[in-house]
Task: structure prediction
Amino acid sequence: MQNARAANEKLAGIQAESEKVLREAREKQAEILKEAAETRNAIVAEAKSQAAEEGAKLLAEAKKQIQVEKANALLDIRSQVADISMQVAEKLVGRELEKSEGTDLLHQRHP
Result:
């Protein structure tokens, strides 16, 4: 009878130890899952931040390129206007003009 009682006590001790180990494992599992969720959230936040930063850089570069192309187009238009003005002036004057002469004539007519 004493052996049975000792066996029951040993069994109860083993069950208590098993429950303790199981409880600790569940706590550890919950901690690991929490850390994984925090890590995932940090990675997602960093990716969003990098994407926003990259998008801003691309937008800035596109705006810069647009300004460069606009400036080049304006230079081209000015050059074409100057050429057309020279052609018109040559027809009005009746002879071919050097660029410096055309510029002088334009300034004389429109100071």
